[in-house]
Amino acid sequence: MKKPSILFVSNTSRHARPYYDPSTRYRCFNFAQSLSAKGYPTACTTQAIFQKQTQVFSNYDYFVFHRPALTAELAEFILSTPTERVIADFDDLNFSVIHAIETPAVRTRSENVSTVSKSLAKIAGAASLFTQFSSSTTPLARHLSTLFSAKKSVVIPNGIDPTFAGISEMVRERNPVSSRPYTFAYFPGTASHNPDLQMIEEPMREALASDSSFKLMIAGPVKIPDSLSQYSAQIHKAEYVAFHELPNLMAKSKFVLGPLEDTEFNQCKSGLKFFEAALSGCTVVGSPIPDIDRFESILLRKCKTTKEWKEALIAPILHSEESLEEAAKLVDLDVSSEKQTAKWISEFIDQ
User: For residue 1, is it within any domain?
Assistant: First the structure.
């Protein structure tokens, strides 16, 4: 029996190379790759391309619209397609206008709240046309169920693709935790994480002051807090690397930092900052947002208070290399894209 075909359509600004958009990679390409391996015909495109010529793509059986934004062309297509064949997918709280002030655009890039609200309203307008939703976290699923006429709002967590998992396994073998040159590492994807690093400024300063052999690597466009400048000899700024080179960089450090301000917007985020690093054998010291809090692992130290951060940053890793390897493998099994895709199939196709 022929398996149904699925088209993933992402509302990304990276029209030429959408794979390089982390959100599109996780929510579209990773699923498409796993579905294809199971015999489902799949493809990925951008909303900008899709809505220019919807008739070219109309023969697919299912359509997954990632972060869709309302346009006349998209609305016409959605309203003319059976509701069970179209799914709206989200991995951020970018459809709730009342949370505009919490978005990175407003908080760190100083964009006008009104302008950002209009952008969120376009996404909310598109979401209102759907009855089936998938999302990366439980809080997102709750928001979607509350705001829209959701007959189905399913949590399908982000999953790690086999290539990234394979590279991570190799770097764990080659980089024993005990011999890694950096104590801590921070991997902010954008400068929007400036407030997050500032949140742990005092614990980080005390950790660096406690032992001159402690070294911090920062890979990303984040501003180093002024109070850490006196420890510049212990801080290294790393160059940007491509996504699949990230495990090699992470494996230079024992701990990876994952601070996040406690906002509703951040509470809806994916826990990928934990499992990307855990697959490289790193112990993650992070804020327990729900999608991280669901994990229990010796590779995870959850911190809410300044006191907890101070204790977690100074406490040594006492587990054996064998125990750390076993923990990394357990995380790998839990977050594989194949596992998440199997859930996607059971929810949206095998009904």
Answer: no
